[in-house]
């Protein structure tokens, strides 16, 4: 059985558990996860029986890439009738069929069109089903995340040789991105969240990193202009300021996420202390990274440690712009489940891959911290990030 | 009056014309267009009176970037009450208020939450209003697109010096992207279409360029893997094959889009002929680029010319994977209005910026064509792309 069939079967079990008759999968990443192909169209998964991938473009390519049944979508107006013909057990049962789709990403306009061609269907939000299944990574997925972890490490180590006083954030980031692209980085990291976007992360030095932003993460970044108000900008890197290097890439679909703190010269005592606290929080988190730990408890533990260090005002952003999490799942997207935040009651399970990112923001001097990505195993964790820890100090040139 | 106020006033006129009471703007690009800031939140524009930008993150940054009234969004649960208080003329009139939002991009889940806190509001799709206003570019926007056009030209000319037999598509693309990033490219080009994504375009050589893909464009590209099945891939560039170089970038929010055909050595007679036909279609299109021309007529004219050249089977893709347009508006997004396609009855107007991209696909040998971006002026057009035309021939090294 292919891994795609296994995933579809898991989704069918969720449908059964929730008395749903089928799932119409619409988003490119979800379709790729469930079929092995990212061509556009709709994947229909009935609660029982075989799924069909109705493809708009490219049918030829979907057939080459996927072992699913692939059919040409044809006229969208007839899609309702097509489904009725192909899945009589769903659409001609006694009750009106109840289907799920991804309410978290599907735009209203497309949903309205779908509703208009299937007037007798009731719709439920099935986003969480797919997100929960995607939380647990297969060995194949883990091996891809490891490749991305290696690429980021290689890119950082190579680029450190080009870091010098007077280079701008975006100039140094360009070096890192050039290396990542040559190693197969797709060019961007996919995000599920509405209005969120990410290329490779950020390099931001000093107060530029502490500049708040819309981005749903603990550090901001001045960015290039109000039209791209996050991440690396034109700020010139000086000596003795913390350089936050929050990097990721996407190789063969899978992302990695890690952060290191770099400095040309020396950091102040306050920042060294805060950095050490971030490493202590990471180490403390590691002792809890095993099956059974409740996700939100990792966040509470980190907050407690930040409070004990009297650094809670600086933890994960500053003031009104603090974010309320310690980390997040990664995989095909950078903002996967589980989130290490209040309200996330999931127990850690083997196969989960999470980025843990304790960071401290000082509006007057910058951001320091560390972030590593971990795989939860049967009896603990495996660290997937391979970059050396500690503040990375470069001698002034 | 700031350009943002002018844009809001245009939207208010659309609201008035359509008997709507207000617009809740939700998408990052639309919010930026109307406020000058891309922070997250909701911009409420009443049909009459001043707009308010309710910001989730970062309030501080929105206040710095925008001249709008900025308020902290606060608890989303109270947002309905906040709007009632701030806009009594909208929410306490005799009839139930009818508001618009962007149905083309807003996910169902967020829309449902909005509906639940404003139970007495009726909602209309207002996507088209914003897209129509955004069709007409201001002098400020045009100057930014020109900067992007210069950057792409510079990146291409620089990278041509590194093009040689044996380099892979993605290796050569990395050179181009490195140059673009150093010139201020944001790192990706924004797209409005669901499931569409774009970094900088594509470099694809020979049959790799002809490989069909989900991407809503005339050429495909093998891409790096099924997880990124478009654009540049690991294919090695050989001599005497057409290299399609479809490039864009996003600087200070604004994108450019252009294509050139490059070859190391010589192209076959069939491909030279097809390339010349693409230039002829471009020249013929130029004679029609003036106020008053109907958008779809540009497409019909191009199809007629492709038919006369007996190349219509190869025009804008091949076989089942042909796309049915000749070009598209560009600006803050790469897929703006107007589209040069059947059904688009808009007349060309001064201030429109459109990319025109006649291309021919040969599954056995590749894709050739040209694409330039044009500004419609009072009496014709101004070409914004500045790259030399003709097939760019590199001597075999």
Automatic annotation (TrEMBL), chains A, B:
Keywords: Aminopeptidase, Hydrolase, Protease. InterPro entries: Creatin/AminoP/Spt16_N, Creatinase/aminopeptidase-like, Creatinase_N, Pept_M24, Peptidase_M24B. Residues 144-378 form the Peptidase M24 domain. Pfam families: Creatinase_N, Peptidase_M24. Residues 7-136 form the Creatinase N-terminal domain. The keyword Ubl conjugation does not apply. The keyword Hydrolase applies. This is Aminopeptidase P family protein. It comes from Chengkuizengella marina.
């Amino acid at each position: 059985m292919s891994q795609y069939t296994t995933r579809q079967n898991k989704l069918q079990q969720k449908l059964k558990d929730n008395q749903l008759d089928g799932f119409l999968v619409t988003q490119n990443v979800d379709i790729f996860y469930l079929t092995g192909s990212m061509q556009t169209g709709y994947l229909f998964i009935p609660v029982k029986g075989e799924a069909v991938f109705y493809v708009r473009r490219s049918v030829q390519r979907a057939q080459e890439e996927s072992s699913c049944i692939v059919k040409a979508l044809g006229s969208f107006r007839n899609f309702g009738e097509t489904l009725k013909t192909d899945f009589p057990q769903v659409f001609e049962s006694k009750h009106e069929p109840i289907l799920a789709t991804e309410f978290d990403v599907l735009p209203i306009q497309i949903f309205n069109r779908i509703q208009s061609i299937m007037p007798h269907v009731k719709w439920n939000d099935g986003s969480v089903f797919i997100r929960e299944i995607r939380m647990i990574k297969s060995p194949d997925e883990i091996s891809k995340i490891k490749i991305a972890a290696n690429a980021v490490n290689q890119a950082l180590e190579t680029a450190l040789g080009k870091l010098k006083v007077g280079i701008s954030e975006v100039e140094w980031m360009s070096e890192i991105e050039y290396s990542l692209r040559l190693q197969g980085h797709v060019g961007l990291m996919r995000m599920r969240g509405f209005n969120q976007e990410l290329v490779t992360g950020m390099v931001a030095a000093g107060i530029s990193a502490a500049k708040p932003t819309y981005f749903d993460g603990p550090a901001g970044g001045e960015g290039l202009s109000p039209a791209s108000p996050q991440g690396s900008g034109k700020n010139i890197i000086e000596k003795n300021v913390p350089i936050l290097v929050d990097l990721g890439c996407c190789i063969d679909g899978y992302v990695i996420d890690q952060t290191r703190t770099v400095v040309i010269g020396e950091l102040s005592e306050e920042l060294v202390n805060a950095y050490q606290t971030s490493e202590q929080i990471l180490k403390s988190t590691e002792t809890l990274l095993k099956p059974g730990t409740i996700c939100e408890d990792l966040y509470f533990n980190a907050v407690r440690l930040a409070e004990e260090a009297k650094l809670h005002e600086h933890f994960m952003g500053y003031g009104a712009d603090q974010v309320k999490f310690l980390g997040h799942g990664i995989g095909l997207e950078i903002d996967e489940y589980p989130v290490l935040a209040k309200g996330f009651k999931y127990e850690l399970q083997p196969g989960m891959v999470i980025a843990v990112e304790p960071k401290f923001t000082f509006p007057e001097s910058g951001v320091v911290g560390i972030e590593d990505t971990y795989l939860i195993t049967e009896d603990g964790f495996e660290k997937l990030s391979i970059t050396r820890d500690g503040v990375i100090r470069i001698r002034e040139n």
